Amino acid sequence: MSSLDTVRDGYRSFDEREDAPVLKGAVGFGLLAALPYIIEIDVAGMELAAALSLKVLILTLIYAYTAQAWNIMSGYTGQFSFGHAAFFGIGAYATQALVVDYAINPWFGMFVGGGVAALYGLLIGFLSFRFNLRGHYFALATLAFAELVRFVIVNMSELHGANGYFKPFPRDYDAAYGLLAFQFESDLPYYYLILGFLLVVTVVSWAVKNSWIGLYFFAIREDERAASSVGVPAFRYKLLGIAISAFFTALGGAYWSMYFNTIRPDTVFALFKNVELLLPAVVGGPGTVVGPIIGSFIVTPMSEIARTSFTGINGLDRVIYGAFLIVIVIYSPRGVVSWPERGRALYRRVRGSGGEE
Amino acid sequence: MRLVSSVALSLPLQGGGLGRFVDPFVQFVIDVVNMEAVLLQLLVFGLLLGGVYALTALGLTMIFGVMDVINFAHGAFLVVGMYTVWLASTTVGLSPFLGIPLAAVVLFVLGVVVHVLTVEPIIEAPQQNQLIATLGVLFIVQSGIEILFSPDPQQVSLSLGSIELGGVFVPRGQLYALLIALGTMLAVRALLNRTDLGRRIRGTANNREGARYVGINVPRINYLTFGIGAALAGIAGGSIALFQRFDPFTGETYLINAFVIVILGGLGSFPGAFVGGLIIGLIQVFGGYYLPGTTAQVLIFLLFIGTLLVKPEGLFGGAGA
């Protein structure tokens, strides 16, 4: 027995422990918490911070968060939504509209946004699922619902139309910089805040997956008619999925609007935003809990680094991004989380054929 | 008559509340009652635009009908068509009317290449994978054009002027675009209904499995269909270039409306694409005249959602490609 096998067996016995997922999660999030310091470690005169700034890390966690929220609905129940920008934008707009126009604390506005988004999600779900839309038709319907909100807002002067909102100073709504004001003077607290968001949504996602709800969700994804025939209330559970997903996506939008200075219909509701929000989940592995986080650590830094390194040629980063999308879906349709398993299968095949000779 | 004038009196109150949503429709009804000349003009503009919209949707609906792929790259194909016509006319001085067939050839080749590289390998994969792959193509082509020709709007210099018919202006550029659209649609219809290749394409659209059993080379049909669909986008883009300024991102707007048309008319249906195109063209022109800002687009999306819900197979659904 080689030392490699010892390690593997040790890991396997650890994997079988009941609290293994909790421990793994704790280690994972512990790593994420240490990340802002890790990137500054100097290794032979090189530090990761040169390529990976704190801003990129924050963006990475934002998209990990939104992809996790998208995953609860689309990854688990298999109803592919292409319109999550609707919920994201609603969260951002509710927060900004309340804080700018009425000086209401953004935390309150965030939950208002979450509620409105959940209701909008229920409306979309009720209409779409009632009329049995699925596959392409459902994806296009969600896209249409997202574009609908965008054009409604562009044409509403009450919501500042196409100009959008400019984030106010904390003193404008009687607060000082800090957690309560949802605004900080440096990026580090922002990082830990989005990490907290990500922790919450990941725990929710994990809890959903490991409860009867998850069981119903996956039954619907695998074969909806079979699930219905054994008594799974598919319609109600699909609605539950879209409502949870919409709620959390809107909170991500609220965070976005408090981190960046401006929001406009063209940014938070953009056609491209629909993709950005869900892509980490598809890259990482739809329907898995770690997939969206791992996926975001691949997609987001890559796209940010491409954007900052090719400033000379406008649009080159999008060419690279597009090529990356194609490569990912062609070579890894089940996501990055399936790589170890694929690697093991390859290893077994190589060793198996070697043994026969 | 009294009803109409009392309604007209309430018009100055517009701007607040629900008035701004109601007033344009009231205004429209008043104009219809009074038989305003502007209505005829708008109708002509709407039909002209609708014909071109129908052509933009044609390739999309064909690809969807045959291989069940939502092709996001279609928007980029339209833009390549526009730039081909523009490039041919500015560098070699080729007439835009000869540039359009050239665009069709260029796009056919591009379409086949894109299909073989990105769609064929995952044709059996879950549907969202093809959607993401074609979206990747959209980004590459769109930004590629931006890099090559700058993001500034371009224009094919053509001074065609317009014809006046009984008080109605018909811009020549748009008229020719409409004629090209109609001609192309008839040609594609003939191709599908009268040729052997057309029969194979329709057979594959009806039943991929069955097509394979009777000896149709389905992968070949796939790439030919994708190429023809892209070529149609090239013709559509070239026709749009006859009367409109464009930039690398013009395709996105047309793409979204093409989706609406395809769903409205029925996925895979040709007459559906035509009627859907006319409906969207009319809504845009009338909406642009009566409604503030881009509210017409809101109407289009409501119509889209309504269609998806009530009749997802579309107006002409089930008619086949």
What does this 3D model show about the protein?
The complex is a heterodimer of chains A (357) and B (321). Chain A has 357 residues and is mainly alpha-helical. Chain A is built from 15 helices and 4 strands. Chain A has a single domain (20-356), classed as ABC transporter involved in vitamin B12 uptake, BtuC. Chain A is 72% helix and 2% strand. In chain A, the strands form 2 sheets. In chain A, strands 1-2 form a two-stranded antiparallel ribbon. In chain A, strands 3-4 form a two-stranded antiparallel sheet. In chain A, a hairpin with a 2-residue loop joins strand 1 and strand 2. In chain A, helix 3 crosses helix 12 and helix 4 packs antiparallel against helix 5 (106-130). The longest helix of chain A has 26 residues, at 234-259. Chain A is globular. Chain B has a domain at 41-250. In chain B, helix 3 packs parallel to helix 7. Chain B has helices at 2-9, 19-34, 37-67, 74-92, 96-119, 127-149, 172-194, 196-206, 208-213, 218-241, 250-265, 270-290, 295-310; strands spanning 162-165, 168-171. By secondary structure, chain B is mainly α. In chain B, strand 1 (162-165) and strand 2 (168-171) form a beta hairpin. Chains A and B meet through helix 5, helix 6, helix 12 and helix 14 of A and helix 6, helix 11 and helix 13 of B.
